[in-house]
């Protein structure tokens, strides 16, 4: 059976390479960015860039040292990382590019200093799933860092180590897996009764809005006059449509911004906006027995809402990639945006027209799209303990402090209350926690082998609806039909 599963994975890898699907569209690269097909996006990944990333690249290229982090007192993991303990040994880590590569090179330098063990970092900004799978089946990698749906696919194929026993026998006394955010282990790390991953990076869509506009007394008065209610940060899609209309200059010449809404709606990212509201209308992407969970009318309602919302967005938004979409909002052209948390870096950057003017909240409707990344150990790795200790270091309480300035937000609840993290002054943390707690829909379909294919099916149909070639109903019918075919092709092996 395992040989058959690997054959299916290989076939789908080749198909993905030929058609351009796969980690070309992972949510993950969304979160600190969002779409791996773009220049290192997030929820899957997010765009790097900015002063923080440039500084991180310099640290990485010069070789990070433990002495660079005097505020951290437990990088040696309760003394379990000892000088020379892995001298002469080497492990290979596979990850996405940009910020991910930067982070792992920093930890590779620290790990070698503390243990003597060499960590080679191989980065793959494109086709991450395909290259990760090929590397795992050919024993090329000891560790992979991937979006959680991809991790689950690899686990289903038997390519990853169940770390349950090592958490008891190898982990340091204070690793404390219960410290991770509520549900993090269940969603990111556990699969089919196994513990297959370490939570690396949490990702959820966040609601960004121009708080200066919502607090403007003149605008509040005009909104109430037109809609008969107070101008408030929208809690529902219906309220969001009213606010979007009010702040769109073609509908309201007095609007101080051109558009009420903006988004990243190009192919590869547009499904996330649909996912953001599917739960509010009572649906889910995958229902019982791997069947579409949105054919009861909920999928049409969520997609029609999206099409109505886009009427109050720039026409170019259906071509916006991560960088373009974030820049557009940060320049002050729109009142609202749903995006992975890394957008705050653009808004709060020195010289940004929106610095200090943006608020962060729960996606209207309360069921945002969930991304996320995790680290796993290859089942074929001959250095299981060394690989475990490297993963433990990266995901430790102190390790998370090293990642945080490079758009890798904490997975651990305690770090959101820790003084050294509060001093970082990240304004999106509270909203991120709120959205993570409410998130119900994974950005990447959590079905082994076919996650990328289903993402392509959804994107093609949604794109056709966005340009007006088909209706919302026709798009949903097409998604359901094609998704069922894809799932049926592997259902016997699920």
**What do the pLDDT scores average to?**
87
For the biggest sheet, the summary is: 5 strands, mixed
- Give the tally of β-strands: 12
Low-confidence stretches: 10-62
CATH superfamily of the largest domain: Periplasmic binding protein-like II
Straight-line distance between termini: 11 Å
- Helix count from the secondary structure assignment: 20
Give the oligomeric state of the chains in this entry, treating copies of one chain as homo and distinct chains as hetero: single chain
List the domain count as a whole number: 2
If classified by CATH, what would the architecture of the largest domain be?
Answer: 3-Layer(aba) Sandwich
CATH topology of the largest domain: D-Maltodextrin-Binding Protein, domain 2
Round the Cα radius of gyration to an integer and report it: 22 Å
Structural class: alpha/beta
> What best-fitting shape do the alpha-carbon axes yield?
globular
The top level CATH class name of the largest domain: Alpha Beta
